[in-house]
Amino acid sequence: MGSKPEAWFLGFLLVSWGDDMRSPLSAALVVCLAWIASALLSTASHADDKMAEFLRQGYLANREAFRQFTCRFRVIDGTAESFSDAIAGTMATTQVRQGLWVVDGRKQRYELVCEDPTTEKLPPPPKGGGVVGGGCNTERLLSDGKLGLRYSKGLGAANISPAKGQQPQIHLTPISMGLMGDDESRGPGSATVMGVNGPAYRRFGGIRTVNGVDLSVMSIGEEGIPGNEWSMQWCLDPARGFLPLEVSYYEAPNQRGRLAVITAVRKCSNGAFFPERSVGIIQPDGPWPRGVQVIELVDLDLRTPSDNAFAVEIPKGSKVVYPEDMRAFVRVPDETRIHVSELAEWIERCNSAMKVRTAQVIPAPSAQARIWEWVVVGLAGAIAFVCAAALLRRRLRRA
User: Fold this and answer.
1) Is 58 helix (H, G, I), strand (E, B) or coil?
2) β-strands 311-314, 329-331: how paired?
3) What distance in Å separates the CA atoms of residue 55 and residue 9, rounded to the nearest whole number?
4) 268-291 confidence digits (pLDDT tens)
5) How far apart are the first and last CA of the chain?
């Protein structure tokens, strides 16, 4: 690979961000990225890997501009008759969910709520393609980075994860589009993407023009192992925070399992870029109709959320469970609001309830029951005495 792509990136950075040095992608970032680009120009070996790292850092700089926010969004699942219908949002809707995502550093609150209770069942699969969203299950999540709670309406329970256990993870947001794995662990900003057989490769895939826009391709995946050769193709836009305007997931070479396209982008007050609308399509190269998922941004507030925002409602009759021991649970008698700061307290309540259950003793027998116990003991003793006397008499006769 020659120096043309690297020089193109450097020029694009200076043109795109030179007019707004107050943004998170500040002059220091531009200088840093320029240094990386110059290193790429002077290093012939491993150029693809270094360019991929350059793209990762560009994406990450924009992503980390969103450390505190309140995001409301909508997820619409359905079936479209053609690619153009899918992009336009013209489809037969099977379910709609309203999303809430509140972030302040490591504290998170996440909700995905079914809009229509009648859709809280698995919708029938469309002809020739699966439904993207599956069943419509309302879920709520809280986390402080150490402890976490996940409520599922389908289970009628809220599980609290232990401090040393796996935290509840977020999968479907306007940023991840359902393609970046739990907590964006498989996204373009992740330092290491783990595959089945260890860390996946990350490479620069050249420049691709989509709808007249030059995008930089980052490829992540595994190869050389029959039956396990998957890849993700992230087409990133350097002019808009390296957002992935088009993403393809290949289950195997030349077998695309899913396509996602960002159709609208918002430039925020902090100078960074946030996806406004995306469209995901299951097996887009197969015969239509196909399952489609549209994620729409409803509102984005970049102010620091209030502490009261980090609480969720647990419906009446639900269980709050500490799953290290399934006997450690409390059933809430009324609708209960749990704040993220109360998670440790709820673990203690669950453990206390378990101790009460395990310490329960058999009730003391009644007086009548005791009389019958003595009668049975007396009869058993009498029978034993008669048998012993008979045995003794038999031995005396033989003697």
Assistant:
1) helix
2) unpaired
3) 9
4) 999 999 999 999 999 999 899 999
5) 113
CA distances 261 to 65, 83, 211, 235, 364, Å, are 22, 11, 12, 10, 69
Reading the block at residue 41, the tokens are 């120009």
29 Rama sector, left if φ>0, alpha if ψ -120 to 50, beta otherwise:
alpha
Return the structure tokens found at 317. Answer: 């009759």
Domain edges within the chain: 4-62
pTM: 0.77
Kindly provide the b/e burial profile for residues 91-113, where b requires at least 16 CB atoms within 10 angstroms of the residue's own CB.
beebbbbebbbbbbeebbbbbbe
| Residue 348 clears pLDDT 90, i.e. is over it | yes
Contact 248, 68 (CB under 8 A): no
Greatest extent of the chain over all pairs of C-alpha atoms, in Å = 122
At residue 164, the pLDDT reads 58
**Closest residue by Cα to residue 156 from 328, 344, 332:** 332
- Beta-carbon contacts of 315 under 8 Å, excluding residues fewer than 6 positions away, are 153, 332, 335
Strands (E), 41-168: 68-80, 92-104, 107-114, 139-143, 148-152, 157-161
